[in-house]
């Protein structure tokens, strides 16, 4: 194997710069034809359409909040995300306080103004389909193939009532439709340990897929989430759509995974050359070898969230709130969510990515005990998850989109190929 040692220069651009580029792109999508400026409108710009404060600033944008209401802007920042550290929480609270008191000009010096345009704006569309006055804040996410406009919808009093996602390209349109289907399915599944958003609207606007879902109360007091409670929540989801059992080689999951591996081994030339052209064939060879060598292994198959990570959930006393269901799927080996969560947690905590993969595989028996996975199938389940994740990254072309971990040869593939070869 010849892993890619360094990412191409265009993939090493600072996250802040990529977010700044996306700021202009996303405003062009939400306000077609409008002029975007950081100063006052010029004489030929047309009537004002919208004005946002940029948090924290235009060089490192993460959130756009309405500039016309201190109350709404403060609420948008307060409920944008739950900081993971004390320092981040203090910074967030300082911005909220500044907005509430009118001192925001000291901390938030940058704003964007939109003028003119076609008049067919996302604001107008959402107000019409939801039948109420709304203010919007706009999340500016990191570079990823599945990045899409995510809007927080607030009342004029500052209450967060919903979040809206827009699918604007082939991949994100498919993901937004998938999430709408997943939430509809899970809304009828009788979940008690897990709370999912409710679909408030699903439709199309100017060719974009739109999903509006209820806001989960992430601002409510948090409760401890130990490993046992997390496993129970994941197990409830895993069994919510039924469970089947059988040999891996004869399973629909294996057939689907083989098809996905074949697709990434020979990517569509119309999409352009991949950043690391050897990764697809290498993954396909390792994944196929794993499926062949363990075809007789008996596994149980159920559902998974697809991206159950610390940043996609919140623990309350009565339930675990979980959002971002665009990767939800059924018929996968039980325990995939537990393995995914462990890997993502380790990477988020700062462990080097390839070491995180190795550590996660080593913990597979402990992680999967709560899913009744046979001891001799634990490593297999973890390796199948890694093949599945890698196939997703390659199919979505995460490296080409500039995703931080998009080049698999730098972290995931070396470990995976080595473990499969040792079977």
Structure description:
The two termini are 17 Å apart. Mean pLDDT is 91; it is low at 1-13. The protein has 423 residues and is α+β, with helices and mostly antiparallel strands. The chain has helices at 15-30, 70-78, 86-101, 104-107, 122-130, 170-186, 227-238, 252-265, 279-293, 336-348, 353-362, 364-368, 378-396, 398-401, 412-421; strands spanning 34-37, 48-55, 63-66, 111-116, 135-139, 150-154, 160-167, 194-195, 199-205, 208-214, 244-247, 298-304, 313-315, 320-322, 329-333. Helix 2 (70-78) runs antiparallel to helix 3 (86-101), helix 8 packs antiparallel against helix 9 and helix 8 (252-265) crosses helix 13 (378-396). A nine-stranded antiparallel β-sheet has the order 1-4-2-3-5-6-7-10-9, sandwiched between helices. A three-stranded mixed β-sheet has the order 8-14-13. It has a three-stranded antiparallel β-sheet with strand order 11-12-15. The protein contains 15 helices and 15 strands. A hairpin with a 5-residue loop joins strand 6 and strand 7.
Could you outline the blueprint of secondary structure elements for this entry?
Blueprint (H helix, E strand, L loop, with lengths): L14 H16 L3 E4 L10 E8 L7 E4 L3 H9 L7 H16 L2 H4 L3 E6 L5 H9 L4 E5 L10 E5 L5 E8 L2 H17 L7 E2 L3 E7 L2 E7 L12 H12 L5 E4 L4 H14 L13 H15 L4 E7 L8 E3 L4 E3 L6 E5 L2 H13 L4 H10 L1 H5 L9 H19 L1 H4 L10 H10 L2
Parallel strand pairs: 8-14
Antiparallel strand pairs: 1-4, 2-3, 2-4, 3-5, 5-6, 6-7, 7-10, 9-10, 11-12, 12-15, 13-14
Helix pairs in contact: 2-3, 8-9, 8-13, 9-13, 9-15, 10-11, 11-15, 13-15
